[in-house]
Specification:
47% of the residues lie in helices and 17% in strands. By secondary structure, the protein is of the alpha/beta class. The chain has 3 domains: 259 residues, HUPs (Rossmann fold), CATH 3.40.50.620; 138 residues, Isoleucyl-tRNA Synthetase, Domain 1, CATH 1.10.730; 47 residues, no CATH class. Strand 16 and strand 17 form a beta hairpin. The chain binds adenosine monophosphate and zinc ion. The site of adenosine monophosphate (AMP) has 17 residues, from helix 1 and strand 11.
Length: 470
């Protein structure tokens, strides 16, 4: 039974999807106007983590993540760069996808672009105007927040601060400034000159950021979806406004579970482009490796702030390394041909199923990754102990399969299988091991040399020999 913390209710709830066995998730994707920083990727990774856990628990997941390719920031910065909005946002869309691959983030079912859905944004706005929930002013159309009785329920804002009739044009504004917000913005002369406009009943406009997500989410899933994700900074005003627009238009529940990821911080402050306290993903991946960065992010609970420091990253790297070495040891031991001669160890098998239960229970408890990773390290400890004591092949296979199961859910070691060591090298290594056991050091050294010439090295350790690619 999966439990998720629902921001709307501020508590963990049992997850029950609309359609049994299937889950519809909408995730706020990147605003493609710069190289995303590692804080952004922490949020994207949180959604990937959720998706993988749902799949692990047997759900079929339909994940849609939007690309914000038209808003205040993309328009402003494409102009600064002297580029067309399209060329500019395409460049950063590519960067975004490159980053997903670095972190082994699974692709969503689709990535709708805001610019591809403007018709739906205009018709959604029309519905709201027809219902008296939105109004035109100076060629722009605003949502009348006083017309929506549940406004503020998600973010728990102080409704006493609402200034009736006052409106705000920018997409991002502070929580203590709840005002009527823009659904469609009248395109400026400059925007019209640059081709950034769409015809509407209210003249030439371009969409505001908030209406984009309502239109794209409902386009993908209809009026109600199971889960909506994003970083905590999106709770207000973005998600509050999405609810107002969507429920305002359809009269139906928009989202059943709101899942928000906490921030990545540096020196006590949110990592953000505007503060300049950010690191890009390529520079951090260059330093530690993509898998380690992924491990670092998922090893903290998604609802806790993560303070990014070198020491934190280094610690993650060391722990990650422990997991990786054990995987190599297991893979090597599995290739040994005399493994059947060891007796089956029932105690070890029992311990394996206990560890598996721990791992699943932890993830089912609002994605408690730290506890799940503890269970993973327990498996590693058990495996290393077992590799020293006995090597029954069926026990080893079970151990390796469980290791793979954990690694797949966490999205780690996906590349390890690509580094397959060829059969002939494994045979030579075994021959060498036999020679060593017979204390035939000359033969053992000769074989080591042959293996080395083929591009592999053998390292002897107290857990037995390991083969590595040079
Ligand atoms: P943006 O590209 O600015 O629209 O942001 C994309 C995602 O990154 C959103 O879900 C934000 O909530 C999230 N985000 C932005 N800054 C951080 C941060 N420092 N830590 C975690 N998530 C963040
Ligand atoms: Zn959004």
């Amino acid at each position: 039974m999966l439990k998720l913390y629902n921001t709307m209710e501020r508590k963990k709830e049992v997850f029950r999807p609309i359609n049994e066995g299937a889950v519809a998730i909408y995730a706020c994707g990147p605003t493609v106007y710069n190289m995303p920083h590692i804080g952004n990727y922490r949020s994207f990774l949180m959604t990937d983590n959720l998706r993988r856990v749902l799949e692990y628990l047997g759900y079929k997941v339909n994940l849609v993540m939007n690309l914000t390719d038209i808003d205040d920031k993309t328009i402003r910065d494409s102009k600064k760069a002297g580029m067309s909005l399209k060329g500019f946002t395409e460049k950063y869309t590519k960067e975004f996808f490159r980053g997903l691959d670095m972190l082994n983030i699974k692709r969503a079912s689709s990535y709708p672009k805001a610019t591809g859905n403007v018709k739906d944004m205009i018709s959604l706005t029309k519905k709201l105007v027809d219902k008296g929930m939105a109004y035109e002013k100076g060629g722009s159309v605003y949502f009348r927040i006083s017309s929506f009785k549940d406004y503020g329920r998600l973010s728990k804002i102080d409704l006493g601060k609402i200034k009736i009739g006052a409106s705000v044009d920018v997409d991002e504004y502070e929580k203590d400034n709840p005002q009527d917000f823009a659904l469609l913005k009248s395109s400026s002369e400059d925007e019209i000159e640059r081709g950034i406009y769409y015809e509407s009943p209210w003249g030439n406009v371009r969409p505001g950021w908030h209406i984009e997500c309502s239109a794209m989410a409902m386009n993908a899933f209809g009026p109600t979806l199971d889960i909506h994700t994003g970083g905590v900074d999106l709770i207000f005003p973005h998600h509050e406004n999405e609810i107002a627009q969507s429920v305002g238009a359809t009269g139906k529940t928009f989202v059943k579970y709101w899942v928000h990821g906490e921030h990545l911080i540096v020196g006590g402050e949110k990592m953000s482009k505007s503060k300049g306290n950010y690191f890009t993903l390529p520079e951090v991946v260059e330093k530690y490796g993509g898998d380690v960065v992924r491990y670092m992010f998922i090893s903290s609970h998604y609802r806790k702030q993560l303070d990014y420091t070198d020491a934190f990253a280094q610690n993650a790297k060391n722990n990650y390394q422990k997991l990786k070495e054990t995987l190599e040891n297991l893979r090597f031991a599995l290739k040994e041909k005399d493994s059947k001669s060891y007796p089956k160890d029932k105690e070890t098998l029992k311990a394996l199923s206990k560890i598996r239960k721990k791992f699943r229970d932890a993830l089912s408890n609002d994605l408690d990754n730290p506890e799940a990773i503890k269970a993973f390290h327990e498996l590693v400890h058990l495996a290393n102990k077992y590799l020293r004591a006995g090597k029954n092949s069926s026990v080893l296979k079970k151990m390796h399969a469980l290791y793979r199961e954990f690694a797949d859910v966490l999205g780690l070691f996906s590349k390890v299988k690509d580094e397959k060591i060829p059969e002939n090298i494994l045979n030579l290594a075994e021959e060498r091991e036999l020679a060593r056991k017979k204390k035939d050091w000359q033969k053992s050294d000769e074989l080591r040399e042959i293996i080395r010439e083929s591009g592999y090295i053998i390292q002897d350790s107290h857990d037995g020999p390991k083969i590595k690619i040079v």
